[in-house]
Amino acid sequence: MIEIKNLSKTFYTSDGEVPALKDVSISIPDGDIYGIIGMSGAGKSTLVRCINMLERPTEGTVIIDGEDLGALSEKELRMKRHDITMIFQGFNLLMQRTVLKNVTFPLELIGVNKEEAENKALELLKIVGLENKTKAFPAQLSGGQQQRVAIARALATNPKVLLCDEATSALDPDTTRSILSLLREINKDLGITIIIITHQMSVVESICKHVAILDNGEVVEEGEVGQVFSHPKSNAAKKLVFPDGDFANQAFIPREGERFIRVVYNGAQATGKPLIAHMAVEIGIEASISYAATSTIADKQYGSMILGIVGGDDEIKHAIEYLSRDADILAEEVSVNAE
Amino acid sequence: MLSNIFESAALNEAIDIFIHEFPMALWDTVYVTILATAFAIVIGLPLGVMLVVGEKNGILPLNSAFMKVLNVVINLLRSVPFLILMILVFPLTRLIVGTTVGTTASIVPLVIAAFPFVARLAESSLREVNPNTIEMAQSMGASPLQIIMKVMIPESIPSLISNATIAITTILGYTAMSGIIGGGGLGKIAINYGYYRYKYLVMVFAVILLILLVQVFQTIGTKLAIKTDKRLKNKS
After folding, report:
1. What is the mean pLDDT of residues A75-86?
2. In this complex, do B135 and A157 lie within 8 Å of one another by their Cβ atoms?
3. pTM for the full model?
C-alpha cells in the first residue's frame, strides 16, 4: 500500500517559487496498476520522483507499507529503492554495457556475486523475451527492445513497486501495446504494484485499474478508470477524454428547441449496436449527432457523443432512460454552454 | 643558409647524430611523455570527477569554498606558461627527484602543468554522461561512489580516451620544450643542435620524429576510442 498524503513540492528558482505539486493525496493498493495522467507540466514526473524520493517533497509524506520514506536516511533510502524501481521514457540503459550487464547492474550495486547475478538476469531476460540478445549492446536494439531490457533491469531486485515514467511515450503504438501487455503480465504474475505516469489516455485505458488526473500540480479527479473516464468532470479530464476539444468549446448552433444528451460508453457491448437507429424506431425519438469521439484500445472501446434532440422534458427523459438501459452506457443531459 | 643545409658534410653529420643520439632521445621522449601523462591522469582524473560531482547540483556536493579553491587553482596552473612553470617548480623538482636537470627531473613540471589540463578534459568527458542515466542509477539505489565508478567513468570511456589522446600529444609538445632547461629527449637535441649550434638538419629530423610520434599516439588513441564506443551501431 502506497499512501501519498498532502504532498507538496515547490521548486525555488531564480524566478521565484514554482509550485509543482499542491497538496496531493492518493493511495494505491498493493498489486494495483495505477495511472497518473496529465498534460505536460502538470507535475506527473515530479510526483513519481517524490514516490522514490529522487525529489524530496517540500511538504507531506509518502508512506509505503507503513514506512515513511521521508524519515529515512540517504543510506536507508538507497536500500528502499531496491524495492521501488523505475523505468523511463528514454530507457536510460548503460550504453557501454551489454544487455546482460545492464540487467545485472542493480544486483552489482547490492553486492550479489557475478554468477548469481547473471543467472537472475538471464531468467529476467527470458521473461521479457530477449534471452537471445544477452551479448548485444543497447545501441543495437530497437526502442521496444531497449525498454524490455530496462524492465528486466528494474525487476532484478525483486521490487514491490515499479514506477513507469512515460515508459511508452517514445514508442510506436504496436510496441507500446506489447510493452503494456508485458507490464500487465508482470503485474499479474509477480504481483508487483505498477504506477504509470503518462500523458496518453490509451495507456491508462488499456492497463490501469485506477487513475488520478493531475492538472497544474493538483489531483483533480481520482478513481476507477472506467468511472473517471466515462464522466469526466474537471476541465483537465475532459481535455484528456476529448482531445479534440470538449463539445462545450466548439461553436455549434443549436437548432430551434434542441437539447443535448451526452452519451458516454465504455466496453465492447456498447459498440457495434445501431443505437441511434434503434432509439428512433423503438421510442420514436430522432437524435442528431452533434459531436462524437471514440478511442479504441485493445479490448475496450471508450467514447462520447453529444446527441441533439428537439423535444421537451419527456422526450429527453425517455431518451436518457432508453440509452441508460445498456449497462455500458451513461447518458445525461448537458447544456451546450456548460462548463 | 638554406643552401648549407643540404651540403653533404652537414647531411653526413646530421645522419651521424641521428644514428647515435636519436634512439636514446626518442626513448627519453616516449618514456617521459607516457610517465608524465600517467601521473597527470592519476591526479587529474579524480579532480575532474570532483569538479563534476562536487557541484551544488552534483551527485555528491562538496564544500562550496573547497570547490571554488579547486577551480581557481586549476585555472591558475593552466594560465602559467609552461616554460615559466618549469622554472617555478624547480624547488619541488629538487625535493622529489633530487635534481632539476635531466630526463626524469622534467617529469615533475610536466605533471604539474598537465594535471590541471587533464582535470578539465576529464570534467568535460564526464559531463557528457546523460543526466538521465545518472538519475536511473540513483533510482536503483546506487551510492555516489557507485555512480562514479559504475556509471560516469565507464559510460564516458570513449570520450576519456579521446581526451587522454589530446593530453598525451600536448604533453609530448611540452617535453620538447623542457629541452630548454635540461630535460632530455628529442626537444633537447632539436634545441642543442638546431638552435645553439645551427645544425638545422638535426632539428628538422627531431621535428619529423616528433610529428611521427604525434601521429602514432593520435592513431592509437582514435582507434581505441572507436573500439571502446559501444554506442556505435553495426559493431559486435
Report:
1. 94
2. no
3. 0.82
For residue B46, what is its C-alpha cell?
Answer: 579524480
CA A13/CA B206 separation, integer angstroms: 57
Residue B41 C-alpha, separation from nearest chain A C-alpha, in angstroms: 21
Average model confidence (pLDDT) for chain A?
Answer: 87
In angstroms, the Cα distances linking B196 to A164, B8, B181, B190 are: 71, 21, 13, 9
Q: Do B233 and A97 touch (CB under 8 A)?
A: no
Which H or E run includes B48?
A: helix B8-53
Sheet holding A16-28, edge to edge: A16-28, A2-13, A59-64, A67-68
pLDDT averaged per 10 residues, chain B (length 236): 65 81 88 95 97 93 95 94 90 89 89 96 96 95 96 96 96 87 82 82 87 95 94 62
Strand order in the sheet with A218-224: A84-88, A161-165, A193-198, A33-37, A210-215, A218-224
A298's grid cell? 485493445
- The stretches of chain A forming alpha helices (DSSP H) are 44-51, 74-80, 99-109, 114-127, 143-155, 173-190, 201-207, 225-230, 235-241, 275-283, 313-324
For A317-330, write each residue's pLDDT tens digit: 888 888 888 767 77
Whether residue A270 is predicted with pLDDT greater than 60 in this model: the reply is no
Chain B interface disruption, residue of A54, A73, A112, A137, most B CBs within 10 A:
A137
Interchain proximity B154–A97, CB inside 8 Å: yes
Contacts of A95 in chain B (CB under 8 A): 133, 155, 230-231
pLDDT band at A128 (very low <50, low <70, confident <90, very high): very high
- What's residue A269's pLDDT? 58
Chain A residues in contact with B234 (beta carbon < 8 A): 140
Q: Give residue ranges of A with CB < 8 Å to any B CB.
A: 52, 54, 75, 77-82, 85-86, 88, 90, 92-97, 105-106, 108-110, 137-140, 153, 157, 163
Domains in chain B with CATH codes: 2-235 (1.10.3720.10)
Query: Can you read off the three cell numbers belonging to residue A45?
Result: 514526473
Q: Which of A77, A81, A94 lies at the smallest CB-CB distance from B151?
A: A94
Chain A residue numbers with beta carbons less than 8 Å from the beta carbon of B137 are 105
Query: Per-residue pLDDT for A301 more than 70?
Result: no
